[in-house]
Design brief:
- Helices cover 51% and strands 21% of the residues.
- By secondary structure, the chain is of the alpha+beta class.
- Strands 1, 2, 3, 4, 5, 6, 7 and 8 form an 8-stranded antiparallel β-sheet that branches.
- Strand 1 and strand 2 form a beta hairpin.
- The longest helix is centred in the middle third of the chain and has 29 residues.
- The radius of gyration is 20 Å and the shape is globular.
Length: 291
């Protein structure tokens, strides 16, 4: 269902379904982007990112980007854009003590968000998935109650903060460097490698190319990626391919062999072995149980 909903506090919600679309834009406010079906591609400078139903992308205020949908079947896009005053108030309520909030309830409410988040691909699962799906379903069914809608948006930000802590803050802490600024810079580069795998998981990815995208040497990438993600790049890619295969098995009618090729595996028997090791069931049994 297509709609653009602008709330009285200037938060915005966009829902659209398109098979083909190409547009160049600049974000006026902080935005969270989802592809609930299919995938949508984004270009941020020289970076090319693809968002699938198991992931989402954040764009900071002022980010210029190109988005593209080129699909044989319609892709369902969903975007949440947060007014800066709403974000500033949320940031205060989330980070300040109750005493500070009671003493100065409006202090800083008119300020911007105060920080830029890492514009990378994040996992779309758990509470974030549950909350966004509920919001989308209610809006599709005609929800007009702005109080309830803003409560959903508040929970989206809470869930994003939790994801950010796990995907950025906790991974920064795992890196073995004394300088905090060095840790942050290394993780930004590692996320470039991670984003490249998210967007090209079904291709033959060479380690040299991965290191080049991260602006790191091969050995530096291998060492620091394992520290941050607790997996080697190859292990991360295998897990990602299995995750995407699981999604295809659940939501499409492609054969097992077709799924194997679509997610980048070369050998069906190897795929079945890895799938069973990860999910404790065979691909066929998983599909039958999910039907």
């Amino acid at each position: 269902m297509d709609y653009i909903k602008t709330l009285r506090n200037n938060n915005k919600i966009l829902s659209e379904t398109r098979a083909h679309r190409f547009q160049t834009q600049s974000t006026s406010d902080f935005s969270i982007r989802f592809a609930l079906t299919g995938n949508e591609s984004y270009r941020l400078g020289r970076r090319e990112l693809s968002v699938y139903p198991d992931s989402f992308l954040i764009l900071n205020k002022g980010t210029q980007y190109i988005s593209k949908i080129d699909s044989n079947t319609p892709v369902e896009s969903f975007a949440l854009t947060f007014d800066q005053h709403f974000l500033a108030d949320f940031n205060r309520s989330y980070t300040l003590s109750d005493v500070s909030l009671l003493d100065e309830p409006q202090h800083g409410a008119g300020l911007g968000f105060g920080m830029d988040f890492n514009e990378t691909i994040y996992p779309f699962a758990g509470d974030m998935l549950f909350n966004v799906n509920h919001l989308k379903n209610n809006l599709d069914n005609g929800l007009q109650d702005e109080l309830l809608i803003n409560e959903y948006l508040n929970h989206c930000l809470i869930n994003y903060y939790r994801i950010y802590k796990n995907e950025v803050d906790n991974k920064v802490d795992k890196l073995n460097f004394s300088s905090q600024s060095t840790k942050i810079e290394i993780l930004k580069r590692l996320n470039l490698a991670k984003d490249y795998m998210y967007s090209n998981y079904n291709k033959n990815i060479a380690l040299d190319d991965l290191a080049k995208h991260a602006c790191l040497s091969v050995n530096h990438l291998l060492r620091t990626f394992k520290q941050a993600f607790s997996l080697s790049p190859h292990q991360f890619l295998i897990q990602l391919r299995l995750q995407r295969a699981k999604m295809l098995l659940k939501t499409t009618h492609y054969s097992i062999n077709e799924v194997v090729c679509m997610v980048g595996f070369e050998c069906p028997s190897s795929f079945i072995r890895l799938f069973k090791g990860k999910y404790k069931t065979t691909p066929m049994k998983y599909r039958q149980a999910a039907a």
